[in-house]
Structures are given as structure tokens and as C-alpha cells.
Structure prediction request, 75 residues.
Amino acid sequence: MAAFEDERDDHGLRRWLLELIGEARSPLALPTLAEQLYSEDEESLRSLAVRGLEQLGTPPARQELWKARANSSVP
Prediction:
């Protein structure tokens, strides 16, 4: 997660790191994934954040998805 936060220039690397974060299914990833639901940088980051939160499947992850969908930030 620290590598994702530190990387700003390589968009491909950011996507890959966010995918790994989601695949880890760690509750510690919740803030990073939730923040990317509202990313203005790339739609692909939002999609990966949705997937990661869905895979996490915890009540807080579902709540973040519900809030983002209510605000029309994600499909």
C-alpha cells in the first residue's frame, strides 16, 4: 500500500499495485481502496477499487461501495 501511495508517475504500475492490494483481501486495504473509488485520475483505478472492495466483502467494504454507488461515483 505504501508503494501505491508513493507512486505517482507510472499509471500502469499504480493499476498493478492496486490490483495486488485488492487481491490480498486485507482489511487494512480498506482506506486505500475506498479512496480510489473517487479517483479522478483514472477510471481503471475506480474499477480496481470496486473489485477489491467486493473481494474484501466485509461490512465496512460493502458500506463504502454503497456510499459510492449512492453518489453515482461507481457502477
Notes: The longest helix spans residues 11-24. DSSP finds five helices and no strands in the chain. The two ends are 24 Å apart (CA to CA).
